């Protein structure tokens, strides 16, 4: 089935490059219904790892430039199942529209709330950066029943870092990204041994959606984002030092 192709390709990729993946707390993964997966992010392998560990196809939101580069566009959309974000002026609106439609059909949507910085300035393997809170807004406003947010930590045990492409080349495809407007190369982190630890799912209730308005909305989003960040950070420390 075409729907399963990203999952099949993920397994083949990890096997081909010899990445050893160890999954913990797999019983926490919802086996049906709409799921919003949020995770820390340091490598292009993170999406294939998450799909393989969760054993479900995941539709990842990916950077705008990935939908602009020939060949890469076909790889990430047709084989990887990703949906590239639009340019900066339309990004938020298109993100909510595309992600909501996928969740309404009970698919799994994957997001990396740290955004682009950890891919350019790769942090230490035990660090997780600040979260953008768009995923929390999405979870609380999407008209989807039985929606779960699933926090996941990707904890590398051994890895190598290589140079992929010049950052200035990516700026040609997405001039709105300030991180591309600098000298140097886009790093490519390759995992040899990685632990993937699955957190406790956070189910969004009808009561939460009813309260998501006015002055309560901002506090609810901050709380939900902080809970996911804290869960991922705790799992990351456990996975890196286990």
TrEMBL record:
GO biological process: phosphatidic acid biosynthetic process
Record-linked SUPFAM superfamilies: Glycerol-3-phosphate (1)-acyltransferase (SSF69593)
Key words, A-Z: Acyltransferase, Transferase
An example Gene Ontology molecular-function term: 1-acylglycerol-3-phosphate O-acyltransferase activity
Full protein name: 1-acyl-sn-glycerol-3-phosphate acyltransferase
Highest taxon in the source lineage: Bacteria
Phospholipid/glycerol acyltransferase domain boundaries: 35-157
